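Quick one, tokens below. Sequence please?
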């Protein structure tokens, strides 16, 4: 069955960086659009970034220029490099396959001094 396993979250100071990973299995990873979403406490889950099978990317305005989504189809993994982190980036980050409506379990990111 489809499995998405996120990792790489943690506590980081403002201005710091983190790299999230999402390891996928159970489907033909290279053929699917992949997304990262996040959900902050008391807020709705929101889209952060999207990557197409051939690497075309799109970002939510609040993260443009700071976050980079990428994928390694040979490793069935999608990444989210997050730089210049701000306290408002604090959230649980989820990997999502829209066509399959499949979510990972999420990895928490806390940006705080």
């Amino acid at each position: 069955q489809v499995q998405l396993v996120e990792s790489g979250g943690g506590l980081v100071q403002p201005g710091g960086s983190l790299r999230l990973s999402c390891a996928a299995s159970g489907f033909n990873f290279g053929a699917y659009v992949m997304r990262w979403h996040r959900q902050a406490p008391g807020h709705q889950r929101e889209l952060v970034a999207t990557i197409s099978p051939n690497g075309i990317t799109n970002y939510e305005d609040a993260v443009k220029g700071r976050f980079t989504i990428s994928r390694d189809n040979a490793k069935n993994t999608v990444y989210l490099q997050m730089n210049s982190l701000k306290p408002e980036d604090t959230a649980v980050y989820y990997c999502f396959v829209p066509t399959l409506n499949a979510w990972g379990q999420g990895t928490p990111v806390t940006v705080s001094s």
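The radius of gyration is 13 Å. The chain has no helices and eleven strands.
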